[in-house]
TrEMBL record:
The keyword DNA-binding applies. This is GntR family transcriptional regulator. PROSITE patterns: HTH_GNTR. Keywords: DNA-binding, Transcription, Transcription regulation. It comes from Galbitalea soli. CDD domains: WHTH_GntR. The keyword ATP-binding does not apply. InterPro entries: Tscrpt_reg_HTH_GntR, WH-like_DNA-bd_sf, WH_DNA-bd_sf. One of its GO terms (molecular function) is DNA-binding transcription factor activity. Residues 15-83 form the HTH gntR-type domain.
Amino acid sequence: MIDPASFRIDPGSSVPPFEQLREQFVERIASGELAAGIRLPTVRGLAEALGLAPGTVARSYRELEADGFIETRGRSGSFVAAQGDPRERQAKEAARVYADRIRALGVDPALGLDYARAALRD
């Protein structure tokens, strides 16, 4: 189980609290600190421990789930998802979508790669 006190929310930050919390989860999951299958604190429990509204924590959890970092198992709670690094998975999917679009437009693949490189530099 995760220690709720290990999360820090800076009330003076320009980053909204739900995003601060989401970013901390993403960092810990990506680093392996939070391994697949680890149970997350309840929304209410984490909200109380951090002095946040339950809706704030719920929004973080919804976004984490939408991005594939966590999964909710009904009444059993929320857990770190067991599917590799979600960022890599999403990046591969974005590349697939881009490649499909370049092909559909009839753009030369080499030129498509040039466009992608230029976009990543911007």
